[in-house]
Amino acid sequence: MNINETLKWASKQLVESCERPTFEAELLLAYHLKKDRTYLHAFDNNEVIQPEAFKRLVSRRATHEPYEYIVGEASFYDIELNVEAGVLIPRPETEILIDLVAEIIEKENITHIAEVGVGSGAISVVLARKFSKLTIIATDICDTPIKVATSNFKKYALDDRVEIRKSNILDEVNEALELVVSNPPYIADDFELEKNVADYEPKEALFGGSVGDELLKQIVLDVKERNIKYLACEMGYDQKEPMTQFFNKVGVKSYKFYKDLAGFDRGFVVEFT
Ligand SMILES: C[S@@+](CC[C@H](N)C(=O)[O-])C[C@H]1O[C@@H](n2cnc3c(N)ncnc32)[C@H](O)[C@@H]1O
Hints:
Layout: H1 3-13, H2 21-33, H3 37-42, H4 51-62, H5 67-71, E1 73-76, E2 79-82, H6 94-108, E3 112-116, H7 122-130, E4 135-140, H8 143-155, E5 162-166, E6 179-182, E7 187-188, H9 195-198, H10 203-206, E8 207-209, H11 214-225, E9 230-234, H12 240-250, E10 254-259, E11 265-271
Parallel strand pairs: 3-4, 3-6, 4-5, 6-9, 7-8
Antiparallel strand pairs: 1-2, 9-11, 10-11
Helix pairs in contact: 1-2, 2-4, 6-7
């Protein structure tokens, strides 16, 4: 089959699993051929090499496997991160958290921070690239994120300033810190997620407990107990009210919530001291 015929075939296979089947068919074929999408249109009469291997890619996507896991890479902020099954695919809304943290780092001249729940390394890589004097200790409880984040810190030559530690929250981090950032698991255990997320993305990255905000609250308590000045976290759209009550109960200097681009409550910044 030539490129044109192959794209038509692949788009049909992807109709049920993808919102934009033609676009995704093009992305997958471009990946398979190691070319960009413009090549597909310029040379649409060329035969597709190794068509069976391409069909296997399409059938993975047709069963809802995320595109990023199939190609092993995710675009985020201004970077391309290695990703694989077992690591959360970084989401665009997390870029807002990064921008808020960047404002604080700049304003306060902060040089020592930690990230809880590093995943692919998305947050730490972007922040370390923005601030050349910043050092980061990044924690995670799972082995695959630790492996993948390490590869991303190396990819961007940040491994001298970003250290990764296997740790529950900050249990293994005793260094003095000025700020903690986290996009922790915050979804309730019984929440029904879309198939592509529920079947493929790691449970440890998604579910925060039977209510959902348990880990968020524990992070707040741990950061407060350590006398760290700032905490910035992503959270669920319905967690503003319970987190407000929690901040008032534990006592913090100030807190503010932020929204995502769709207008949903999406996270907070707390100042403790
Ligand atoms: C929602 S993902 C965020 C990944 C990445 N920071 C991002 O924004 O794309 C949450 C991460 O927290 C990790 N995690 C879950 N519980 C944790 C805990 N108690 N302490 C540290 N990390 C934890 C998960 O393994 C997962 O990698």
